[in-house]
Amino acid sequence: TLAGFHLDSLAVDRFARDYQKRYMLAYVETIQRCERNEGVETLTHQKWSGANYMDATMALVNASSSTLAQQSGSTEAQFK
Fold first, then answer.
1. 8 Å CB contact between 36 and 78
2. Dihedral (Cα; 13, 8, 10, 44), 10-degree rounding
3. Nearest CA to 43 among 10, 76, 7, 8?
4. Residues 21-38: tens digit of each pLDDT
5. Is 0.85 surpassed by the pTM of this model?
6. What is the spatial distance between Cα 33 and Cα 37, in angstroms, rounded to a whole number?
7. Within 13 Å and on the Cβ side, how many CA atoms surround 5?
8. 3-state SS class at 45
9. Which of 1, 11, 21, 24 is at a distance of 20 to 30 A from 65, taking alpha carbons?
10. What is the pLDDT of residue 70?
């Protein structure tokens, strides 16, 4: 929608300016913490990226995939 287009544009522009000054702190403070506080599902982005599907596919070919191998240290694990 028109509103969605402008919302995305404004949010990206604001974040880009903040990131230019504060780097990852800008991401953590303005995006990640808000996602956590508001229960936004994309905080745990691996389930949205298809990582589970790729793990299952890789497991057929190889005993462990890169995402399975790093499971305990992945960003996904810290939000459980």
1. no
2. -60
3. 76
4. 999 999 999 999 999 999
5. no
6. 6
7. 2
8. coil
9. 24
10. 57
